[in-house]
Design a protein that fits this description.
The chain is built from six helices and ten strands. It is of the alpha/beta class. The protein is globular and about 55 Å long. The longest helix has 14 residues. Strands 4-1-5-9-6-10 form a six-stranded mixed beta sheet, sandwiched between helices. The protein has a two-stranded antiparallel sheet with strand order 2-3. The protein has a two-stranded antiparallel ribbon with strand order 7-8.
Length: 225
């Protein structure tokens, strides 16, 4: 299996300005993902950015940057699927061989090469995507509620008979760390509608996804430890 590792890093982040190259624990955020991609099963590492400064920082980390993301795919409304397909098309035109796409978002600095390798080990015939997940604190069978037409709350799923969280079905949320995707399936379906998805469970300590300044403060504390 030959992975195409895609690291998406646009320049216009809003929640944490310039977060992809902001120093976390003394090194640029994007460096954590580059380092773990290098330790993973051999493949081609492709940075997808529209930003020259991000590209230069990646180069300073020793990563060759030969592709720049088109401006129309650099807005905050551009979808991950379109970004990935454009990078796939570029790789194909360059004669780069790959069997699967591994999306590694820089906002998951605690993800390890072992996490990536384990996701790859779950990928195979009959699987459209392996996705890293964390067990969710919020559970639609237990502590998530919806309003009915009269304005009263009722549990989102089930009959509301669970009195202990431990008895409710386990539910998961994507943690944003690793996506191993079948290329032809991605061309056929939006990511949310890929029919055959397999989870890879990660601990909460490695599942932080940097979106807000509070997330960043938590990551700084984790890095210090």
């Amino acid at each position: 299996m030959i992975p195409l590792y895609i690291i998406p890093a646009r320049g216009g982040s809003k929640g944490i300005p310039r977060k992809n190259i902001k120093l976390l624990g003394g090194k640029p955020l994007i460096a954590y993902t580059i380092d773990e991609a290098r330790k993973s099963p051999q493949g081609y590492i492709l940075l997808s950015t529209d930003d020259k400064e991000i590209a230069d920082v990646a180069r300073s980390e020793g990563l060759a940057v030969n592709y720049m993301r088109p401006a129309e795919l650099a807005s905050d409304t551009a979808g991950s699927r379109e970004v990935i397909i454009d990078a796939m098309d570029w790789a194909t035109k360059q004669g780069i061989d790959y069997d699967c796409v591994v999306l590694l978002q820089p906002t998951s600095p605690m993800r390890t090469a072992e996490d990536i390798e384990r996701c790859l080990s779950l990928y195979g015939e009959g699987v459209d995507m392996v996705v890293s997940v964390v067990e969710s604190d919020a559970n639609p069978y237990f502590n998530l509620f919806e309003e009915d037409s009269a304005g009263f709350l009722h549990v989102s799923k089930g009959d509301g008979q669970y009195v202990r969280r431990q008895d409710a079905p386990r539910v998961y949320e994507y943690n944003g760390a690793v996506y191993v995707i079948r290329p032809d399936a991605l061309r056929k379906y939006p990511m949310a509608r890929l029919p055959r998805k397999v989870p890879y469970l990660m601990p909460r300590s490695r599942s932080i996804d940097l979106d807000t300044e509070m997330d960043w403060l938590i990551a700084e504390k984790l890095i210090q430890k």
